[in-house]
Amino acid sequence: MIGAIEECQERNTAMTNRVGQLSPRWQMALALVTLYVVWGSTYLGIRLAIETMPPFLMASARFLIAGGVLYTWMRLRGVPNPTRLHTRSGLIIGGLLLLGGNGGVTWSEQYVPSGLAAVMIGAVPIWTVLLDWLLFGAQRPTRRVALGLSGGLLGVGLLAGPGTLFGGQSFNTLGIVALLVATLTWSVGSLYSRRAPLPRVPLMATGLEMLAGGFWLGLAGTLTGEWSALDVGAISLKSALALIYLAVFGSLLGFTAYVWLLRHTTPARATSYAYVNPVVALALGWALAGEDVGARTIIAAAIIIGSVVLITSSRGESAVRDGAAFEPASEPAPTQASVTAQAVGSMSCD
Q1: Cβ-based burial of 274 (10 A; exposed 0-12, middle 13-18, buried ≥19)
Q2: CA-based angle 312:133:202, to the nearest 5?
Q3: Over the stretch 205-216, which tens digit does the pLDDT of each residue have?
Q4: Less Cβ crowding at N or C end of the chain, within 10 Å?
């Protein structure tokens, strides 16, 4: 037994060393690819999970599991508990990102296809660019950005408009509104988290935010009466496996990469996953869940994705800070390589 543990520790150390040797450019690429692929698949995972579980309670379990693992692991490694100020920031970020953002997406997938939800989340960079300018004094949007914003609104309007267009394909208006609110709260939370006082160790900050989000989502499930609709015996194996996937890959790995990106690059690049995820989500929804991908969805997706590309590409490479943007000089942050290696290493012996 002892020999197996020592072998596992040696393997994790070797993995950390190999990943830690990556250049900053490859570290950034690793974080972005993680979001592009993993978060693109979580939309289908959410749909499968809520087939036999209430949405808010399912999302609460997802983040309480992931946050609990990170928090416990950090404490065992000697990381101090968050301060009261850190906890307040975690509660705010957890409420905006995970209750408002992820919770809104999860709830909406009761009424709209997972691929459509991913397309609507393409509005995140639109909100982020506008709010970064209006609230935090970033560069004023150029004409190119304004054109992209107009195109994005056109795409969203096409999805939410009359169902007589393009073969009568229509979508639930309440689900569309929930997704729009989710994009707004996610953008606000993302921008706030870049400047909020949080624990120095990124994985402790991530664990704190996920625990806070799990608390808010559980409260939302309680207030909406989801406990009476929860039947543990009726939870299918497919839903249970989807929940595990969401907790491990969508939260532990994906959310950790996103938090790191928010602190090491511009909001435009950090949220660029929003125009890659729909491609992954639409393909998976069509191939594995039999979701209809009609002309209306394809046209709207093309407009939204094109608009977001227009917005984010106009920010310019010079605006990207691949070092430690918004990081306090006295608190050097671990690289994405070390964070990812730690996250993978902590699960490799389970």
Answers
A1: buried
A2: 75
A3: 999 999 999 999
A4: N
